[in-house]
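# step 3/5: fold
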Amino acid sequence: MGLFFRKTKVQLAAPVTGKLIPLEQVKDQAFAQKMLGDGVAFLPETGELVAPCDGEISYVPDTAHAIALTEAHGLEILLHIGLNTVEQQGQGFKALVKTGDKVKAGQVLLTFDRDALQARGCDLSTPMVITNGDKVAKLEKGAQGPVSAGKDICLTVTLN
């Protein structure tokens, strides 16, 4: 008699409202070559970053340009606003959460001044990557194009 195990699937919603693009199109080799993990990227149209799923905030840098989130099954997700935004030393960013906070899908995690950052020459491509790929059996990416923060599913992750 065979045993069948149902693999756990985790769905991650868009963390921003904007346009979904392939991670490979990001103009930063660390992300484009998936050195930090596989995933997708976005071109944000608003200045809010929301939680793609329920989880716990595992890291918020002082510059508030990124958020690391751990989902209930241990999936580690990095959300990174822009490519050269760390150089802004926090200007234009406001974190609304801190390390250890429990968050719900769709909850606003941070805000950013999109126009001011672009005026300073920042590329606002926003990667969402899974940093512990060893937990991933399969990664299904959403279709390129317009997405709404907290609504459109952009990644479906089947866990090992």
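# step 4/5: annotate
The first strand starts at residue 9 and ends at 13.
# step 5/5: archive (pending)
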